[in-house]
Amino acid sequence: MKDDMDKIVSLSDGDSTVELQKYLSSLSNDQLTTVLTNGALKGKKVGTMIKGIFKGSPSSSTEGSTRRLLVYQHCIPLCESGDLQTEVAADIIGLLMLETHTLPGPSLAKLASLFVEAIKVGKMGSGKSLELFPTVLTALSACEALSYGKGELSGEGYKKQLINSLCSSRWDPQCVIHLTTMFRDVPLSSEELQFLVEKVLRMFTKLDLQEIPPLVYQLLLLSAKGCKKQVLDGIICYFKEQDVRQEEEQKHGESLDLEVQSIPQDQLRHVEGTVILHIVFAIRLDHELGREFLKNFKVTSYGDLCPFSVALLLSVARIQRYEEQVFDLLKGAIVKSFKDEQLQQGSKFLQDLLPGPCSVDHMILDTVKNSVFGWDHVTQGLVQLGFSLMDAFGPKPGPFGKTIEGASTIARTPTQQACKLGGQVLLQGFKMHEPIRGEILEQVLNRLVTETASPVNHYLDLFSDIVVSAPMILLESSSKVTETFDHLSYLPLTTVQGLLKAVQPLLKVSMSLKDALILVLRKAMFSSQLDGRKSAVTGFLMLLKNFKVLGSLASSQCSQAASSSQVQVDVHSRYNSAANEAFCLEILSGLRRCLGQQADVRLMLYEGFYDVLRRNSQLASSIMQTLFSQLKWYYEPEQDLLPPVKLEPCITALGDQVFLQEPLAHLLSCTVHCLLWLQNMRRSAHPVANDSDDEDEEEEEEGYQSELETILESMTRRMIKSELEDFELDKSAEFSIGSSVGVKNSIYAVLVMGVYEILMEFNFIKANYSKNRFEELIELFNRYHKLSEILKEKSGKGRVPSNKTPRSLLSLGFISTLLTVLFRDSTQSREEALSVLRLSGEFVRYAVNVAVQKIQQLEESGHTDGPDGQNTDRTFRFLCDMTSVLMWRYTNIPSAVEDGGKKEKRSSLSLLCLEGLLRIFTTCQQRFPDRMVQLLSTMDIAEDDSEPDDGNVTEMNFFYIRQFQRALFTQLSGGEEEFNSKEAQLLVSILTVLSRQLKPTSQQFVQMITWTVKICKETNFEDSAFSKGLLSLLFSLHVLYKSPVSLLLELCQDIHSQLGDIDQDVEVEKQSHFAIVNMKTASTATLLVLSQVDRVLDEVDWLIAKKKSQAPSDTPDPGGATQTAGQQDPIEKAVTLQLGTLLTALNELVQTALLPGSCTITLLRELSRTYTTLTTLVKYYIQVCASQPGALSARLEKLVKLSGSHLTPQCYSFITYAQSGEMSIGGADDKKKKKRNEVNTAASAKLLRETKAIPNVIFSIEQYEKFLITLSKKSKVNLMQYMKLSTSRDFRINAASLDAALQEQDGTPETNESQEAEEKEEPKKKKRKQ
């Protein structure tokens, strides 16, 4: 055998080819293959031998070409067998490649078939010999003709056949990667390529996860030939499915305790990460691929996003040229997703039509979660995305750059939700990825410092969350926080408060941070800016609250706010209580200096001291002495002198201007509340003290406490005796803001009223229900009331200032107690004393008024003045108490009883209670949305058995709804004379707020809507404000129940029959579905109906847009051509039905004699919007007809017919009516009105608006008709047969001016009359055609 081999080698080295041929011919096929096999296995000289065989087998002879084919047929399986050394196999394949082009066509065909067969049966495992296949195919396609079956094929055709049969057959998973690699070298036509890519993508699911990245890499290289979109879609789709499967497995796995997972999560994530890297690398090299990738997402919006594609997008964003596009695309998708969700949640019609949208926020948060598995290339993008969301959608500054105080914490609008999502992404990113922490922290702090013009609440919230979730991590980069402290005195006060509150847990564990902060605050104390000094006071008060001195009484609320599970530091080892005490006293002495500063700074101190005392009661004596000595400055110690307070030192003058220097009432308030709290604590914690030190201390405390009480009692006595003249405030005093005397008197008045209020609260608490003390309290109130009446009267004369009554200084807790005892306390022993208060109607009224004022402040800013105002839990408790009292007062004492004889201008007590309830419900829904149940469950007004079960939220809510329904029904059944419009409006508003708590699927919701419809149908009061409230409630409920178009149609018919037709000769059929619509309320109803029309059009536009975005991806469907109305797409059907009913409703309104003004303009605007929507629908059908000829539904034809025969002609006559209405208004004015109109620029602006509305309608009608013509051509259905062109949009001759001109010429008035007759006739004719 070896001899054969040596012989072939030596002969091939020689010159004589003939001998070599002879020798080879002498060998049989078997011998030759054996020689080849042995040579290849030993690996020696095999290359030379094969060269020799080729040399001795000239391709020109049949024998030679057969021998060559034999060599190929034998060597290919030999190389695949895996028995050869790699280099030997590579050499053999290289040699065979060189000689392939010499093979004749039939041999090539056989060879190619051999490859295809081997692949089909899975013998191409190692893929070494596959390198040869492209060469074979290339050589094949160059052949002229080959016999195939019984006929002949060109080489190119034969190649196509082969590839087809190859892609249709089953591939062994092992050789998928080799085949994909191999096809890169094969010249393919676009169809072949598409066929191949589909095949490879189908093979994804059969491969092992680890084999996906190399295959993706090969596919991406292959995509250089084309099919880029298909490749990317396929890869993304595969991972989307894997993610879904993995998630489901996890869910079911948890419930079934299955340990086995078909896809381990970490493995899947690592594979995804690698694939993302491959794709990004490919996009860097091939920008065409990048363009295709982004274009794909732009077309489909967010429908195709998934955690994998989000991660991919964020990685692609690292390529500079795509960065901006990617973030714009993601931001757009996020906001659009939130908007769609909001639109769908607000409409039952849309919920029934479409499944809920996929939420992009979940996907993005999933991407953050998945990025833990080493996706470093995604994290940078996540940080950028988080900040770009927060920057773009954060709260905006209000008017004049002011920030809106205490913005609501719940994200409601799509932009707020997007901003919140940005914060979540950054917070999760911060927790999970160490490398990006520094950057996130730096960027957040930078924004806090630099964004002084716009609100930074969202960044403060994020910073606070970071501190709470990872305080120890934050301490590693505490230098960044210290840097931020340096800017404190230049930042807005709200930012400083938020920042200090956020870092507070860190100060407990980091000495250096605390020291840095104190240094900064000390400097700020002497800042030239008022805001800087206020910031210092804020900071120091916060430190006093949080560094407890040992031995402080633990008030129930005083849990120290080291709100972090990770802070495991023994506070007392570094901070012993003595150090804390020294530290706190030092701060207090610093704060005392502030008592000589501006009123604003003092005010902050007075508002903060009470909280400090409650948290840190050991500081009581220092604080009380500070307050006491301050109060003495303004107190008149001579017992016989009146008044007991010195008001002169409370003000200061600068030039002509007078300023408040000392907020005396707040000082007194702070002193009283601190005193009362201390006495209360001493009483509750008073075991007999043994320690002599303690006794000394207590004696000292008792000393100033009793002295203070004496002062307060003396003040009470003397304030009752003091007349207004003693304060230089009587009826003749001036209170105008213009003069310095007026300003001085106003300041005095506010201070005196404040002092009265504080003394009232002090005396009430001290009175312990004694009748005499309550009589003193009423005396105080009478003084207060007298002064407030003078103030009201004086301020009423001039221009009315914005806040009529100054904010009350009574605390929320006191008001809540006071209301309870006034209305609900039936204890026998207190009866006599309380009757003193109850008999003063003004006092009761004042109490309810203050309650309403406090609730309003809570609703607007999230907190109230006075003690406990910032404490949300206590505030909420007071709210609950007040709710139950106000509810009891309103339901048990009918309003008819209380103000029987008096027809007063001001609202009754019942009304005030009702207003309070409305404000409480609104506040609760905004500020404590998840505690509404708790609020309702405290309103124990039903003592009978019908009390609903606490657990059943809806039941309880509905129980109260029924109470208010009864009250409203009583109002409505009384007849119009006894009808109190204000009360009815308040009741409707309360019902609106409470009905939001009902689930639209519940039985109670249906009952609510039925009741509302019934009331609207039966009530015929001519009160437009009430009817507006009631109809708004009806619409807000109806939209969650079903589509409101049929309701709109009925209302439009009612409005038409009430207001009459634009053509006075036409008698409108009298019909009344809803009695609430009458002559008085018709205009209000019209505007409400039109706003609902706008909403319906929004939904229809949204649906058409959704269909449009789906249309391009749908392949033309051959069955579509025969589509009939019976099997029409549900969305298209719904859209046509909605628009059909809407057109009928508008047809009614267009014929109605509406009053000129806002009704007419709004109607014209809605008409032009309706035609624009119709045009959009027609454009959609043009798009559909392009892909599915003849897919026009009968419904659409009906809709077009309806618009042409009913609406368009009526529109033109309405335009004529509107214009003639304008003329008559202009002409029939008397001189006075003319003058007023000249002055009033608003009227001219209105006229401009009106003139715009009419051309807009005409333009939109013409656009609609233009596209109808296009659709008619495309669909071969004549839709224009329903359209009649109108003449009213041609220019019209002005009859009056023509008349004047003709009279000048020949004085013949007949022509003029005939002219007028003709002009009037035209619209009339049109109107009759219905």
UniProtKB/TrEMBL annotation:
<dbReference type="Pfam" id="PF14680">
    <property type="entry name" value="FANCI_HD2"/>
</dbReference>
<feature type="domain" description="FANCI solenoid 2">
    <location>
        <begin position="378"/>
        <end position="541"/>
    </location>
</feature>
<dbReference type="Pfam" id="PF14677">
    <property type="entry name" value="FANCI_S3"/>
</dbReference>
<feature type="domain" description="FANCI solenoid 4">
    <location>
        <begin position="1048"/>
        <end position="1299"/>
    </location>
</feature>
<dbReference type="Pfam" id="PF14679">
    <property type="entry name" value="FANCI_HD1"/>
</dbReference>
<feature type="region of interest" description="Disordered">
    <location>
        <begin position="1300"/>
        <end position="1330"/>
    </location>
</feature>
<feature type="domain" description="FANCI helical">
    <location>
        <begin position="288"/>
        <end position="370"/>
    </location>
</feature>
<dbReference type="InterPro" id="IPR029313">
    <property type="entry name" value="FANCI_S3"/>
</dbReference>
<dbReference type="InterPro" id="IPR029312">
    <property type="entry name" value="FANCI_HD2"/>
</dbReference>
<feature type="compositionally biased region" description="Acidic residues">
    <location>
        <begin position="691"/>
        <end position="704"/>
    </location>
</feature>
<dbReference type="InterPro" id="IPR029308">
    <property type="entry name" value="FANCI_S1"/>
</dbReference>
<dbReference type="InterPro" id="IPR029314">
    <property type="entry name" value="FANCI_S4"/>
</dbReference>
<feature type="domain" description="FANCI solenoid 3">
    <location>
        <begin position="809"/>
        <end position="1034"/>
    </location>
</feature>
<dbReference type="InterPro" id="IPR029305">
    <property type="entry name" value="FANCI_S1-cap"/>
</dbReference>
<feature type="domain" description="FANCI solenoid 1 cap">
    <location>
        <begin position="5"/>
        <end position="56"/>
    </location>
</feature>
<dbReference type="Pfam" id="PF14678">
    <property type="entry name" value="FANCI_S4"/>
</dbReference>
<dbReference type="Pfam" id="PF14676">
    <property type="entry name" value="FANCI_S2"/>
</dbReference>
<protein>
    <recommendedName>
        <fullName>Fanconi anemia group I protein</fullName>
    </recommendedName>
</protein>
<dbReference type="InterPro" id="IPR026171">
    <property type="entry name" value="FANCI"/>
</dbReference>
<dbReference type="InterPro" id="IPR029310">
    <property type="entry name" value="FANCI_HD1"/>
</dbReference>
<dbReference type="Pfam" id="PF14674">
    <property type="entry name" value="FANCI_S1-cap"/>
</dbReference>
<dbReference type="Pfam" id="PF14675">
    <property type="entry name" value="FANCI_S1"/>
</dbReference>
<feature type="domain" description="FANCI solenoid 1">
    <location>
        <begin position="66"/>
        <end position="283"/>
    </location>
</feature>
<dbReference type="InterPro" id="IPR029315">
    <property type="entry name" value="FANCI_S2"/>
</dbReference>
<feature type="region of interest" description="Disordered">
    <location>
        <begin position="1108"/>
        <end position="1127"/>
    </location>
</feature>
<feature type="region of interest" description="Disordered">
    <location>
        <begin position="687"/>
        <end position="706"/>
    </location>
</feature>
<feature type="domain" description="FANCI helical">
    <location>
        <begin position="555"/>
        <end position="792"/>
    </location>
</feature>
